[in-house]
User: Fold this.
Amino acid sequence: MNPPVRDFVGYGRRPPVVRWPGDARVAVSIVVNYEEGSERSFDRDGVNEGLGEVPRRVDAPYRDLATESVYEYGSRAGVHRLLRLFARYDVATTFFAAAEALERNPEVCAALRDSGHEVCAHGWRWTEEWTLDVDAQRAAIERAVRSIEATCGQRPVGWYSRWMPSVDTRRLLVEEGGFRYDSNAYNDDLPYFVQVGDAPFLVVPYSLTFNDSRHTYGQLTSASDFFDECRRGFDYLWEEGDHTPRMLSIGVHPRLIGQPSRTSALRDFIDHVLTKGGAWFARRRDIAETWWNQHPTLVRD
Assistant:
């Protein structure tokens, strides 16, 4: 079934030159992972979700009410704090959204419909696709598309799996026919094409480096750590962008970055980018369309 082939070369010494809108040096893609309400829970799955504010899991037969409430904070308070911040700065973002999480919070769906942010499918539920058989994956993709169309009024054109896809995911996305990209890779600073069967398909890589999930693992201990990591990444890419424009992915979660102190770090980063200039705050679908339009011949074998 043509499983993915590892590529250690990429663009090498000759990365392609793209012209971002406004001749920006860096396309900054802020991604909000909206998963609250679709995570594992004891009442439905017989196991508790293991990723909360601390990296631990409460085992059955005990229900983890603490972690459940952390996720509820994200959907009740954190996500709206982020939406207010983006509106204040007129910043366009992409929501990696689990379809079920959207169904459980019509307020968020209404805000997304009104705001113009992109909704990228993050699964039907926030589940590990590599544990599902092909038919179950196909059904979950179709169900996620229908659900997001109904709740948010837009058909998702991008896909991002929880942590990693299965070896079949990309083929199933191409088979579905309506996806323009996925973000199921962490291996580059620029989009790139892959060949899936007879069709080219675009990968818009994501990042676990510039990501607030590192608070969960103790790798970032303060809001200032997150700001410094993102600022340094942007500044370095900005310097490189003098010759070859770059892309920076920033990953955040309402239950984490939505806490006031951490939101202030994201605010300071946006301030820094706007003050420095030369950046394009972009939805991933717009990055993908720019790449499709400017580099349609870069399909790799």
Observations:
- The mean pLDDT is 92.
- The domain at 21-294 is CATH 3.20.20.370 (TIM Barrel).
- The CA atoms of residues 89 and 270 lie 8 Å apart.
- The chain is about 40% helix and 15% strand.
